[in-house]
Every structure is written in structure tokens, then in C-alpha cells.
Amino acid sequence: MSVCRECRSMFRRQPQALRALRSISFVARPSHRTPFTTGATPLLRILQDDSKKRTIEPAYISRRTATTLPPPPVATTSTSHAIPDLAAIHARIDELANTVLKPVDNPIPAEQRTLYVLEQLESLIDSLQHAKSPTESRSPQKPTSTQDKQATATSALLGSVNARRHPSHLTAASLLDSIGTRAEQVLRHPNVFITPAILKSYISLQTQLHSPMSFPDAFDLYARKPIPRLSGSNEVTYQKANPDKVSSAIDTETAEKALSQAILSNNLPLAIDIITTTFSAPAYKRNKILRQALIPISGLAIAPLAAYTIAMQFSLIQTSMDPSQATTVAFAGIMTYMTAVASMGYIAVTTANDQMRRVTWATGVPLWERWIREEERAALDTVAMHWGFEDLARRGDEEGVEWESLREFVGRRGMVLDRVELMDGME
User: Fold this and answer.
1) 8 or 151: whose pLDDT is higher?
2) Where is the region Disordered (predicted)?
3) Rounded to whole angstroms, how far apart are CA atoms 357 and 417?
4) Which of 24, 212, 255, 357 could pair covalently with 261 via S-S, beta carbons 3.0-4.6 A apart?
5) Count helices and strands in the chain by DSSP H and E runs
6) What are the CA-CA distances from residue 363 to residues 343, 378, 424 (Å)?
7) 3-class DSSP assignment, residue 325
């Protein structure tokens, strides 16, 4: 195919980039394409082929633009908590409390309902304590026009009443106080029977609020609050509670949790009140005897019968003595052995003092009383460790009104704070 001179000279004067583009299109051109036999100029044919090439082969486009396109945006997720709806939370608090304070179906609310209310209030505390405040989550926006600036100034002066989602007096702190007040109202309601699970849930709720001031009253209510009873005419009657019975004892885990919160708040009178209403109560001592000493005492009670039975069987297999005499000798020997072993074990248990740090028993306190009141001594020991010096060399140098009142209280309870002969270097 012949090319005219004018077209050839025009093609030679093309820019270098157009020549490279033509060479790429010629190389990438499909081999099955039919020859171009029309009367169009060669330059026009090259440009047409190159434009078709760009629309047909997407791989060519990706190679040409891979170094110029910006990277795709990375999706980011916000881990901050959303702003709580304070008005909705306030309404939810009232709704939950009224299901117990003002029940519709039964004047005496069930334990499951009271537990559900306390658990829901505790979840609301968690959402309020971990949610971001509105000032942290809102970013200031700059006005973009004169009209926006005027609207911003007006809003600053008058306030946006329509955009307010809750009353101005509602804050996260006020709602937390409201939850604590409502929970205490539920516990003090005359028709609410306080069970160990309800008391434990209440202590957990107030601990999350860092408000332990109501713990002694709660423990006293648990032991002395009148028991509601539903009569046949759907009227509520109240039965007097016995604070000294075994079921009135405070659980050890609940008492230790309350004492720990009082120690963290650095409130010595509160800590002493908690110890007085929990570990020092007669019901706690009786409960400990029932839980820990009932089996050993029962074993000692049936020990003579078991020893006599074994002695009778021994007299039947021996031949050196009269059966009755052999029974007496065997019974005496078995009882002597059991008494000696039991006495040694009792003394070892009641005189153990490795766990004592600063509070020890005074001279003359019976061994049985030491064992039965060990939790009370351990609680006072924990309080003394917190209020005293941590340095071993400075122990005994504490002074002040609170420390002297603690020393006096420990002395009235038959204990000694920092016994001189037991301190380091005073042996």
C-alpha cells in the first residue's frame, strides 16, 4: 500500500508521545482484525485504533492509571460510647422503681422482680459511667456564612429550646444519685422482704456508685426488718424478725465487700459500723457454729457409742480376759486416744496466730471465743493495716484521733493493737 509524501512528512513531524502511543496500539492490536481499506488517512486510522484499544482492554487502563489514582479510603469505626438519652434513662429509673414500690398485681413483690430491678439499675449505672459527655463528643462547627454566624450568635444568647432532648437539670451525676436513692427506697420499702441475694445485689450496686454510707443500715434492716405476710383478705401483715437467729447472719463475702468499700473511702467510723453489724453480730457467730462446728461436734457426740461398739467386738476376739473386762479396757483406751487427738486438734486450731499482723487477742480470752470471733479480729486487723504505716520500722508511731479511737475500740473487744512483745525487734 502506497503512502503519499504529504502524509509521510506529517507522520514524521508527530510528537514523541504520539509515536509511543501509536507503537503500543500497533503492538496490542488483535491479529484477527481486518485490513483498513477505506480512503482514510493513516494517521486517522492509528488514532481510531488506539481509541478502540482503550475501550476494549481494561487491563491497559489499569496499567496506565495504577500510579496516579489515590488509594481507596479506609473505613474507620468509632469505639466511643454514644451519648445517653438522659430523659429516657430518668424515665426508665422511675419505671423500674415503681414496679416494686407501687406493684399492681401483688402488694408483696417477688424476689425475682426485685432482683431484676436492681440488676437493671446496675446496668444503667454502667452505661452512665462509661458514656462520653456531650462536650467531648460534639466538635465545634465554624459558621460558613453571615446567615450562619447570625444564627450561631442567636443560639448562644437565647439557647436552642427545640433541640434540647432533656431538661437542663438532668445530668449523669444527678441520675447516678437518683439510682442510688431509688435502690435504697426499694430496700426500705415495708413490703420488700430482703433476701441474701437482694442484699448482695444492693451492696454491689452501691459499690459501683462508690456510696457505702448506707451499708450499716442495710445490714441492720436485713436482720431486724419486719417480715411481710399476705393474709387471706389480700392485706399485708408484718411479723417481727429475730435478729439473733441463724438466717439473719450476713454472708461473709458480702460483708468483706462492704468493708473493702468503706476502707477505700477512708471512713473509719463507717468501717467500724460495718464490722459491728456483720462479724460482731450474734447471728454471725451462730451461723459459723452451724456451718463449721456442727460436724465435729456431732462426731464427738457419737464417739462414745462408736468406741463402745468397737470395744465389744474386740472383747469377742480376745481370749486373755473376761469379755466384760476386755470391753471396759478397750473402751477406755479408745476414748483416751480420741480425746487426746481431739484436744490437740482443738488447741492447734484455736491458738493459730500466723494470720495475725497488728491486732492480736488479749490475755485471758477463751480459746472458743477466739475461734468464734476470728473473722471480727481479721476485719479489725485489715482496718489497722490500712490506717497505720506500711513501713515495718514505723509501726507503733501512729497518732491522731482516729488511730486512738481504733485502739480504744479494739481494746473494748478483747484485743490488743500492736502488742509490744510481738513487734519486730521487741522479742
Assistant:
1) 8
2) 128-152
3) 9
4) 212
5) 19, 4
6) 20, 17, 20
7) helix
Burial readout 307-339 (b: 16 or more C-beta within 10 A, e: otherwise): bbeebeebbeeeeeeeeeebbeebbeebeeebe
Residue at 413: amino acid letter:
R
What is the CB neighbour count within 10 angstroms for residue 215? Answer: 27
Q: What is the residue-wise DSSP string for 138-194?
A: PPP----SHHHHHHHHHHHHH--STT--S-TT--HHHHHHHHHHHHHHHHH-TT---
Nearest to 278 by CA among 251, 257, 246: 251
For residue 5, name the pLDDT band (cuts at 50, 70, 90): low
Alpha-carbon span 258 to 204, nearest angstrom: 9
Length of the chain: 427
- Give the pLDDT of residue 172: 87
Instruction: Copy the grid coordinates of residue 182.
Output: 431509688
Q: What does 269-315 look like in DSSP terms, one character per residue?
A: HHHHHHHHHTTTSHHHHHHHIIIIIHHHHHHHHHHHHHHHHHHHHHH
pLDDT tens-digit profile of 28-40?
444 444 443 444 4
Whole-prediction pTM value?
0.70
Average pLDDT along the chain: 78
Between residues 286 and 130, the one the model is more confident about: 286
pLDDT of 406-423, one tens digit each? Answer: 999 999 999 999 887 766
Q: Which of 77, 87, 82, 89 is nearest to 132 (CA)?
A: 82
Q: Which residue has the cell 514505723?
A: 394
Q: Residue 236: enclosing H or E segment and its boundaries? A: strand 236-239
Q: How far, in Å, CA of 96 to CA of 122, rounded? A: 12
